[in-house]
Each structure stands twice: as structure tokens, then as C-alpha cells.
Design goal:
Elements lengths: L1 H9 L4 H12 L10 H6 E3 L3 H17 L7 H12 L4 E2 L1 H6 L3 H10 L3
Antiparallel strand pairs: 1-2
Length: 113
């Protein structure tokens, strides 16, 4: 297991994938200039820099399990909800309207890539 973990950490990732992941995570923060209106309206606290790291790490594991040498955007999409769900804190307005972190993530992923 430890060898597999080391292998995953050494797996290469394309620069454009890294940039898109950083942008995705940045858009979860209501204070970010480019954040969509639903994030500004319904999110108290967005994901931090470690979320980007774990999105990449999780996507690497998905790619490896699928027999590929590098993750792609679909791998990021597949791991985004479990990685981001607990890192996005919705506000009272979201709770009152029944909007969950998964709803915010789904909307962000529609424009992802």
C-alpha cells in the first residue's frame, strides 16, 4: 500500500489540469472576484488550497485505478464532490432555500473544463 501511495504522488499531471483545479477551488470562495453569484449568495466559507491538492491526488488515484498514467478532467469531476463537499460551508440563506454544498459543486462543475 505504501508503494502505491508513493507511486500516485509521483504521477505526472498536465499543467492545464492543475490550473483548472486551482480555478475551480478558487471559485468556491465568495470573496473571489470571479465567483459565480450562487457562491456569493449561498456560501460562507469556500475550499482552501489543500482542496486543490487533494483533488489532484484523488484524480491521480482514479486514473491509476483505471490504468492510465495521468489524470484528466473527468477524473477531477468524479472526485470533486467527495473532496469539496465538507470544505464548502453554506450560509443561512442556502439552508433556508434547501441548497446544499453538493448543489453548489454541481453548478461549478457545469462550467468546469
Amino acid at each position: 500500500m505504501l508503494r502505491f501511495q508513493k507511486l500516485i504522488r509521483r504521477m505526472p499531471v498536465a499543467d492545464d489540469i492543475i490550473e483548472k483545479v486551482i480555478r475551480l477551488v478558487s471559485l468556491t470562495r465568495p470573496s473571489h472576484a470571479g465567483a459565480p453569484q450562487n457562491v456569493k449568495n449561498y456560501v460562507s466559507w469556500g475550499a482552501g488550497p489543500r482542496a486543490s491538492q487533494y483533488l489532484i491526488l484523488g484524480a491521480k488515484a482514479v486514473a491509476a485505478l483505471d490504468g492510465r498514467y495521468s489524470p484528466n478532467l473527468d477524473d477531477i469531476r468524479s472526485i470533486a464532490r467527495p473532496v469539496l463537499r465538507h470544505r464548502i460551508i453554506t450560509n443561512f440563506a442556502a439552508e433556508a432555500e434547501g441548497i446544499k454544498a453538493d448543489d453548489i459543486i454541481s453548478e461549478l462543475l457545469t462550467d468546469f473544463g
